[in-house]
Amino acid sequence: xxxxxxxxxxxxxxxxxxxxxxxxxxxxxxxxxxxxxxxxxxxxxxxxxxxxxxxxxxxxxxxxxxxxxxxxxxxxxxxxxxxxxxxxxxxxxxxxxxxxxxxxxxxxxxxxxxxxxxxxxxxxxxxxxxxxxxxxxxxxxxxxxxxxxxxxxxxxxxxxxxxxxxxxxxxxxxxxxxxxxxxxxxxxxxxxxxxxxxxxxxxxxxxxxxxxxxxxxxxxxxxxxxxxxxxxxxxxxxxxxxxxxxxxxxxxxxxxxxxxxxxxxxxxxxxxxxxxxxxxxxxxxxxxxxxxxxxxxxx
Amino acid sequence: xxxxxxxxxxxxxxxxxxxxxxxxxxxxxxxxxxxxxxxxxxxxxxxxxxxxxxxxxxxxxxxxxxxxxxxxxxxxxxxxxxxxxxxxxxxxxxxxxxxxxxxxxxxxxxxxxxxxxxxxxxxxxxxxxxxxxxxxxxxxxxxxxxxxxxxxxxxxxxxxxxxxxxxxxxxxxxxxxxxxxxxxxxxxxxxxxxxxxxxxxxxxxxxxxxxxxxxxxxxxxxxxxxxxxxxxxxxxxxxxxxxxxxxxxxxxxxxxxxxxxxxxxxxxxxxxxxxxxxxxxxxxxxxxxxxxxxxxxxxxxxxxxxxxxxxxxxxxx
Lengths: 299, 317
What we know:
- The structure holds 2 protein chains of 2 kinds.
- Helices cover 65% and strands 1% of the residues of chain A.
- In chain A, strands 1-2 form a two-stranded antiparallel ribbon.
- Chain A has 12 helices and 2 strands.
- Chain B is mainly α.
- Chain B has helices at residues 2-29, 34-39, 48-57, 64-74, 90-125, 130-144, 147-162, 177-211, 214-222, 226-263, 269-279, 282-310, 312-316.
- In chain B, α10 (226-263) runs antiparallel to α12 (282-310).
- Chains A and B meet through α6, α10 and α12 of A and α1, α2, α6, α7 and α10 of B.
């Protein structure tokens, strides 16, 4: 019996690669919501001068504790400063501190994790013990120790020691993630090939390993932004972070506002909503990014 | 089980020693001079001699190894040095404020477990229904709302609804339970919300995972009652990761408490820590950080023991 071979239909073209952005929007609607909220904050941060109707630091004793209404949308505080304008300007502080410390913390953590996973052995062991210890302190406790030891150091209106305090707790968390990914990459043949080609350690880590841990890096940056904003707000609330008169959400909730629970509840409600919404958006975006970039990590 | 417990307990000792060393160096190795920060805090002009004298008074002029030896030898006797601000022994300051914080943390933990396990179970059982969606929204919000702001909202709510505020001042539970609870329940709820949210999410995803296991399908095929499957097969296995997350998050509960005590004006460990940080009282900071790290290690020991109890495979390994 003759074997009939039916020629398979020729594949005329490769399937069109779907547009990545469109895919993300279609599969992760919640991520899009998170992204839009983040975009709103970014617009507020850059366009603060045009958006806010009042100078955030301008004291107006004729409008002290004015309730929300036509002129002052979110009311005013005990110095007659416009709460809405302070929230808009506050997004600058929150995003600046958040972005700088999340990127710095994740970058340092990723490099440390890549080195730890790549070298293995004693170096890995030493780094892991250090990370274990750092992870056994609550984020805010670690940050407060840094604040206490370093004091304040302002430069261009940003307190760099505050940023250091927020960066430090992010490092070990990213380190763990980066190390785990590195371990699976180091086992791949192309790393052996790079070694055989005689490349140095630095080159292998920077050119061969780090490009492969970009996905977990991006996910962690987004998640760390949420952490950093929350931490900055908490520290400022405690009087250990941003100082007056700089508008910052945590600072708006601190100190005097507690005396105005009954007379001016808007001083408490609106800044808190701003913090919650920002943290919520970055968490949501980070979660969607994780599901989209790395479905294996989905829990 | 006894052997397993003893072994886990012995393993804690080197960890605690490591933590003690880490705390010492964390505070001393970081760039920056505590004395300078303390004395020149507001840009005050302080002479070098004054700084040197202060350093000498605090024993900071001694070589590092000597400071380290004194610190390590003091630890077994619970001698953590003296507060730089009040001059009282650090341990005394801590013991004074420990009960209220401990009680609030424990209450928050109980609230979280009581909410998370049933809520997470319901959410998993009614997956993708409106109940599940509602539970998940509540849980995701719990991760975003800062606990101190939730505390402020609670105060706001109590004031506008009942025109009543919790009293300031702590009465021990055994003296007047009602007065005690009327003060502690609010901060416990504020920090417990986040805790409950994290545990609920974990409970849901872990139960969903377990429900896909073969032994659950076998039990179903045998015709076992759903309720019995849940109780005997699913819940016990699903609880393991939840216990882990409850242990890990306990440290964050304390972190949340540090800020939330401020809102309710509770004179506990958190407030002490904030005051110590603001004043640069680094002996006190050192003692408190050590305390928090020790609690973390002990909670994780407890988690390990619960693990061994829940899963015989772990304790026999």
